[in-house]
Amino acid sequence: MFPFIFEWTWDISHIVFMGGLWYAISIIGAGLTFAIVKSLFDVYGSHDSHGNGHH
Amino acid sequence: MNETPLIPAGVKRCSKWQFSLWMAAVTAVLLWGVYAMFLIWYKGLNQTNMNDAYGFALWIWADLAVIALGGGAFFSGFLTYIIGKDELKNIINFAVIIGFICYSSALLILAIDIGQPLRGWFIFWHANVHSMLTEVAFCLSCYFAVLTIEFIPLILENPKLAKKPFLHHLSHNMHGIMAVFAATGVFLSFFHQGSLGGVAGVLYGRPFAFREHIFIWPFTFFLFTWSAAACGPCFTILVTKITEKITGKKLVGDAAVRLLAKISGWMIITYIIAKTADTIYWAYVTAPGLGFTLMDFYTSSTYNIGLLFAEIIVCGFVPGLILITKRGRESSFLLMTAIILAVIGVSLNRWVMVLQVMAVPLFSFNEWYTYMPSWQEVATTVLPVAYGLIVISLAYRYLPVFPQERELNPID
Known about the structure:
The structure holds 2 protein chains of 2 kinds. Chain A is an all-alpha fold.
């Protein structure tokens, strides 16, 4: 799963398999992080801007 | 406890005692399965009737069947979020819940089947990159994460939870990028559905399963993905219709159901034509090339040629032809007949590709291999059904699963 695990070799099978896995995990993780961070901004960011009188 | 704040506004639900009685009955079945599950984990796989001939048995069939039936989630998601079939937004929530149940059940069954679930993480950490089952494990786990993410916004729409500003925004923002998750789900589903078929197709020592290849992928790779996309939506419609029957309400408008049925019908017809072509090529070219005739695979009283006829004609062409005709979709009897046949058809295909593969004798001096599951195997296979009923019951009661419910069932 990781290059530091003893059976890892830099061959095409490992690159395709693990590349696919980490690609999917990255998209899922990035999407989830975006939704959480944007929600935090929506909740707390809007309070600040209202409080400071911006817009 | 007063439940009213937890129940979505504008809909009617059964009384608390009725709901509790129903949940108690289903939980009793669930506990039977849980008991069998712990028995297997504690005492080992000797609690099953699997043997040297049947390394794959009831559990793997159940696994493949629920994964195929749960395919309604990825295909409906693809149609809704990627193709833009807005009508399907009325059924997509329920498709996601059914997919979530199917995939969590598949993972649970695998956790029982591997015998030592504490070593389940080995498949990731020490991955065999030459195995199709490794790809299945990767895609299955990632797609389950996607389904969970698709389910979360619906849970956050519970009236009580939606009052929390952060959760309300989180639900909204997750909805906003759902197309990204849906696309990821389609990518993952294509590969794991396919690889489950590929596992059978690469078994060159098993002429009943072995198929010709396109590059590294046997024909079964494509047929499995195709059949899941074709029959998965039928299972979504079937569960919707059962839920409507039990609740005594219309929950999804006819337009959404008929559109999904029509697309499913065309998928089934194209799939079954491809499946027929594959079967003919296998019967006349592949199997004879390996020293077998077609009828060598159907000499058992259980596994006779009627099974092939049932799978391709009765549970393939018949439902497909019904669903592609307007009259077939508009008649509730024909619609129900077609979706039930399609669900049986895909389950039968998975049964054949798992259990008949194991049963067929490989040498002229062998008999047909037999297997009867133990009660522990049956109980742990029934377990996901009870679990699914509980999840659907809770979701229906406390979440706004069906966007059209209020409109179709106005409260005076």
